[in-house]
Amino acid sequence: MIRIGLAPIGQIPEALVALLAAQIREKLKTNDVAVEIHAALILPEKTTPAFVLSRLSHLLNKDQQKYLIGLVDADISESEDDFIYNRDDVNRRMGAVALTRLRPEFYKLPANDAVFQARVLKLILREIALLLGLGLCQDKKCLMYHARNLHEIDIKYPSFCLDCWPRLNTAISKK
Ligand SMILES: [Zn+2]
Question: Which residues surround ligand 1, an ion (CB under 5 A)?
Answer without folding.
Answer: 137, 139, 142, 144, 161, 164
